[in-house]
Design a protein that fits this description.
This protein is α/β, with parallel strands linked by helices. 38% of the residues lie in helices and 20% in strands. The chain starts with 7 loop residues before the first strand and ends with a helix.
């Protein structure tokens, strides 16, 4: 199996998906930083998580500077708020030229806005609906 190049990844949001992704990427050997305003959210990370945790707002320019966004290979916005995710993703893409920007979007109707900005998005709503439809045999 080929070795994967180590990447600097910044994840905004330490909810269930953010914590799981941070754990997986850390285990894969990437340099992971996860940001969340709620310090209690970091309890979702596994014991032995080797990444960096930062309590704060991922829209704050000073916070983004401290986590090294200008050196990031990827920025992934996984907060519960679509608006927050799109703003953070646009900042990462436009102001900091992060090569890979991915954003969670819960409302599929907003996907056009993400597409128009050139931001890759993942919708747990659409993924869940597709999986249920697949299981039903439709």
């Amino acid at each position: 199996m080929a070795e994967v190049a180590r990447k600097k990844v910044i994840i905004l949001g330490c909810g269930r998906m953010g914590a799981e992704l941070a754990s997986l990427l850390d285990r894969d050997g990437h340099d992971v930083t996860i940001i969340d305003p709620d310090v209690e959210a970091f309890r979702r990370l596994p014991v032995g998580f080797g990444g960096t945790i930062m309590a704060g707002d991922g829209l704050d320019p000073e916070m983004l500077r401290r986590v090294g966004i200008d050196k990031a290979d990827a920025f992934i916005a996984l907060t519960d708020g679509d608006n927050h995710n799109i703003m953070a993703s646009e900042i990462a893409r436009s102001l900091h030229d992060v090569p890979t920007v991915i954003s969670q979007i819960k409302d599929p109707l907003r996907s056009e806005a993400f597409d128009a900005l050139g931001i890759d998005s993942v919708s747990p709503t659409l993924l869940g609906a597709d999986k249920i439809r697949e299981v039903m045999g439709s």
